[in-house]
Task: structure prediction
Amino acid sequence: RDAEIQGLTVDTLLDHGAVTERVLHHGKLYDLVILGIRGETEERFEGQGGGHLEGIVRDLGVPTLFVPHDIDSITGVVVGYDGSENAAKAVRAGLSLAQDAGVGVEIVHVTADGTGQELLDQAVASCSGASVTVGTSLIPREEGRRGANLVKWAVSHHANVLAIGKLGQSAMRDFLYGGVVDHVLSSSPLMVLIVR
Result:
């Protein structure tokens, strides 16, 4: 009902069958799929839910917003950016979401050596004409994974959406770099927008 008041068209569907298969079947018909990160099973039996996320993230070709049960509005959008094609897609999708919500966007690059400002400048150039504030930040890579650094930064800056690009099917690249998505989905208190 809130969506109707805001002038949005929202389709809901009750379907039966294997969750991943049904989401993949119906999801390809839409521009954005919104799913809960942790459902009823996770809430009742910690560590037991979320088994469908990996297959959905791997195979669904449209942007997917994963939402924790305790978030009901968007306060800010952070985009993790590494210069890749999928990161550029995440910038566009994150910007679109931010404009719809009337909040700002911060494009963030995690760096181990202080480099990356030129990447951020390229990303900002692609946002010309945006109706919301677009900023950039280079953040130092702390111990641990880049995903943890992104989540920590977003939380400390009061954003509750993290947009990231998912890498392709290369097993080695996903092993080396794709862990950001896996880490963020498994541990993030934020909404996570994944773009392929």
